[in-house]
Backbone:
């Protein structure tokens, strides 16, 4: 069963329309960043407007004297509550960039904070960690890099047992990781990868989700394909660690599967796979099998619940499966049941239907998977036919011309396949697509027509009867299309 | 998009599939000008195809991260005391107690009562401080294990290990969990010189601490005659307040009960 952990979204004070508008702005900003390949950036990590709206009272700016006082009180106060309170006040203040700047410039401040972080007073430790967390969020490099003296301790604490504290350390580390390659160049030799590998055995879901986040940031780093993922790189290698096996375990469907955790590790897996470092290794560890089962589980979940967020998992699962299927090693394990199991195709279509309603922009990714499944698989092409999925597939023609590619995948396997494509809505759909001006789409339609003419007697005839020739005519002068148009005209007329 | 009604049932059914239809290709199929060939497609990391999904992913992350970091609402419970002998810390939230317990009582050395942040460090401590066999072996071979999880290097001395930690792993020189044991006498449990917050006028920098641990501040020092305390004064007291900028060691013995 899918257990959604604590809902993270608190009620907000702005109206629905404002929210929608805000979301569109955020999307636009992210899209721009993505195009500039700046998606993993500190600035985009938090939604500042959201934060301000939630704050209620805006944090004050503290000066040097105040900060010193808080620190002194935290360090040497007699009353525990007093000491804790001082750190809480400091933490609130550190939400302001001005206070952050003042803090890091104050001599001994970080040292004191690290001292409190490593103190024996549990609650002070927690608050000190929260202060560090605030600093780690800053957009100013100087502020973030001021946290560096604490990293060896953050990593040490990952082997502890206090789940809240570890979760905080992980999110802080995640922020530090994003900051710069320089920061990562310290974290890697300090053993962040083995520390994460040890920590991933934690039973706490909150810890696992935080770990997945931190790891996903590490794997997204520009230098990850060369320096972080490959097993050849000494102690900082992800593929050389036990992380992949644990990740796959956490993605196993079953009663323990948690959506928040699964989302993070599915994305981690995606970043590893699309870096194309050693996907064969992942396949031997059962990645294809696990992901296939997960796909089935996901399709089941989609039918059962209204749960927001399943598309967040569907997307990386599609990507991982699709990319893995291109590996030579995938062919070798093609004998595995999952890769011939027609339930995989059924699941994919259920998910496509779900996405059509929930997040149509992700449909191309699902269709990409369908292409990779059917390209070299008579088994999956047969499944498409035997499960009656051609008509639903045609419904998605307007979404992407990968639909045509998939149909070609089926048709090119010969007469037995084309027979099952005929008669039916296929012809009229093709006549529709021939009316498009997009050369790519028309080109694919021509390829499909050729296969149908070749393998299905009567297809050419039917085509002619439905004014197919006129449909072809409008493309006679188009450079990329003319040869094929003429060939088809010949075939249609003369057989 | 209408799906065939049998599809959902099929999903719930047993694994397997119908026998694949026979494949029979005509060579004319791939003759020019036609060029279709089925092929699985692969997209690398930065490909534009991933833009949409990536944007959705980051929108989600923004929502998640914006909620992280603030102190969560903790359900308050009636005050209760830590049940560990000698500890009188009071709590009104279970999560606070959890962290306290794990920090102070979980990885505790049964010989000298020092607490450690992890089982790994505790094990290393016991080995290096309380295992006489270790001392013997250490004279002849490299026994001091690197503290970084995953690093298998071993060293002849504690100092060599520290150098390795600093040079190879970029650890701070004053890493709190790697203080050498000063062997000026047997390490014995019980002697507790409780050195508390430092006197005013100090620069706030903790001086060299001999202990490799986190202390249990609330353990009451067992009574010991003044003479004995002096004898132990060079060693590491078993319970030291730690990480609060207090200076450690015998130098401060005179002031140690200031805040008692």
Residues:
């Amino acid at each position: 069963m899918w257990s959604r952990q604590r809902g993270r979204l608190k009620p907000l004070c702005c109206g629905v329309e404002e929210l929608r508008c805000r979301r569109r702005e955020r999307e636009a900003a992210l899209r721009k960043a993505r195009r500039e390949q700046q998606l993993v950036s500190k600035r985009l990590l938090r939604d500042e407007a959201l934060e301000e709206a939630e704050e209620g009272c805006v944090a004050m700016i503290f000066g040097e004297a105040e900060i010193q006082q808080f620190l002194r009180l935290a360090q040497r106060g007699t009353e525990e509550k007093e000491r804790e309170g001082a750190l809480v006040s400091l933490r609130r203040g550190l939400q302001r960039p001005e206070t952050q700047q003042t803090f890091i410039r104050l001599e001994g401040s970080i040292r004191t904070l690290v001292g409190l972080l490593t103190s024996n007073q549990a609650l002070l430790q927690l608050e000190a960690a929260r202060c560090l967390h605030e600093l780690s969020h800053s957009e100013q490099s100087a502020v973030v890099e001021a946290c560096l003296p604490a990293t060896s301790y953050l990593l040490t604490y990952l082997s502890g047992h206090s789940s809240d504290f570890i979760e905080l350390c992980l999110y802080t580390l995640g922020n530090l990781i994003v900051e710069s390659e320089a920061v990562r160049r310290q974290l890697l030799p300090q053993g962040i990868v083995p520390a994460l590998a040890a920590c991933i055995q934690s039973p706490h879901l909150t810890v696992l989700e935080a770990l997945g986040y931190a790891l996903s940031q590490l794997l997204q780093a520009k230098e990850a394909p060369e320096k972080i993922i490959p097993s050849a790189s000494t102690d900082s290698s992800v593929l050389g660690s036990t992380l992949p096996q644990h990740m796959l375990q956490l993605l196993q469907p079953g009663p323990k599967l948690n959506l928040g955790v699964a989302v993070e590790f599915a994305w981690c897996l995606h970043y590893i796979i699309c870096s194309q470092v050693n996907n064969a290794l992942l396949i031997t560890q059962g990645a294809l099998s696990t992901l296939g089962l997960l796909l089935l589980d996901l399709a089941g979940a989609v039918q059962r619940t209204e749960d927001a967020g399943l598309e967040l998992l569907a997307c990386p699962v599609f990507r991982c499966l699709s990319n893995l299927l291109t590996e030579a090693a995938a062919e070798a394990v093609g004998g595995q049941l999952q890769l011939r199991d027609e339930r995989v195709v059924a699941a994919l279509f259920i998910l496509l239907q779900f996405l059509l309603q929930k997040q149509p922009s992700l449909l191309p990714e699902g269709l990409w998977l369908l292409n990779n499944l059917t390209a070299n698989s008579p088994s999956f092409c047969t499944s498409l036919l035997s499960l009656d999925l051609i008509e639903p597939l045609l419904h998605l023609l307007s979404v992407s011309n990968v639909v045509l590619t998939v149909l070609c995948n089926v048709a090119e396997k010969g007469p037995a396949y084309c027979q099952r494509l005929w008669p039916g809505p296929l012809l009229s759909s093709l006549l529709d697509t021939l009316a498009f001006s997009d050369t790519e789409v028309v080109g694919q339609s021509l390829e499909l027509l050729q296969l149908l003419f070749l393998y299905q007697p009567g297809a050419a005839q039917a085509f002619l009867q439905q004014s197919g020739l006129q449909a072809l005519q409008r493309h006679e002068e188009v450079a990329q299309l003319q040869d094929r148009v003429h060939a088809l005209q010949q075939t249609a007329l003369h057989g | 998009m209408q799906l065939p009604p049998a599809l959902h049932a099929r999903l719930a059914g047993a694994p397997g599939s119908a026998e694949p239809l026979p494949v029979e290709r005509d060579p004319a199929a791939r003759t020019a000008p036609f060029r279709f060939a089925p092929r699985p497609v692969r997209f690398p990391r930065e490909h534009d195809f991933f833009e949409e999904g990536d944007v959705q992913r980051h929108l989600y992350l923004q929502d998640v991260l914006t909620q992280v970091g603030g102190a969560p609402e903790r359900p308050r419970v009636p005050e209760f005391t830590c049940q560990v002998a000698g500890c009188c810390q009071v709590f009104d939230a279970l999560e606070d107690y959890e962290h306290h317990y794990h920090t102070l009582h979980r990885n505790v050395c049964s010989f000298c009562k020092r607490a450690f942040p992890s089982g790994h460090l505790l094990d290393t401590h016991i080995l290096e401080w309380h295992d006489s066999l270790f001392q013997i072996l250490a004279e002849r071979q490299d026994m001091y294990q690197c503290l970084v999880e995953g690093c298998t290097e071993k060293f002849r001395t504690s100092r060599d290990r520290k150098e390795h930690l600093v040079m190879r792993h970029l650890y701070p020189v004053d890493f709190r969990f790697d203080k050498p044991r000063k062997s000026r006498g047997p390490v014995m449990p019980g002697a507790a010189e409780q050195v508390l917050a430092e006197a005013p006028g100090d620069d706030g920098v903790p001086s060299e601490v001999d202990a490799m641990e986190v202390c249990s501040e609330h353990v009451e020092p067992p009574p010991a005659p003044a003479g004995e305390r002096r004898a132990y004064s060079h060693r590491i007291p078993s319970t030291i307040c730690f990480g609060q900028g207090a200076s450690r060691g015998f130098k401060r013995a005179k002031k140690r009960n200031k805040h008692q």
